[in-house]
# Entry
Amino acid sequence: MASRLVDDRTERFSELFREFTPSVRGFVRTMVAASDVEPVVQATFETAWAKLEAIPLLSQRAWLFGVARNHVRNHVRAERRRAFLVDAIGAQRPGELTSCPRGCVDPVEIAPVLAALQHLSTEERELLQLVAWHEMEPAEVAVVLKISANNARVRIHRARKHLETLMQPELGEVDR
# Structure
């Protein structure tokens, strides 16, 4: 009996998905950048799956559009917060960026490091931040990144070597 209910639920959702995905995608496309359409559509149908029994049969498309609209609004708010944070961080002076509880860091000394960090990949920066700023051991980094401890050690080593290369004026790409 439970299997029949699961099959009915799955079939209803499949029909809903097949019938309304194009129109939901078209609706979302009018409100967000092309690269953000699929994540919003996916979130809309995840909500539809979770609340399948609450979707009114006579206004399924309207219900999905309402959910999509809410996901778009959440997405836009998140993007606005992200842009605000990027602007706020960009407006900081090097001394403000590098202040730490252990003591005062000379902005002139740290500026080349900050410049070199900008030339690392996102993954390399994340590794070095976990190790240097959050004082994590490779085993802890491995847990955060869901990789093996050995893999974490290798990646940390490579990121450090890349940073070191960028810090050497004759080898690096960073303009001082």
Observations:
- The CA atoms of residues 16 and 60 lie 8 Å apart.
- Residues 172-176 have pLDDT under 50 and may be disordered.
- Residues 60-90 form the longest helix (31 residues).
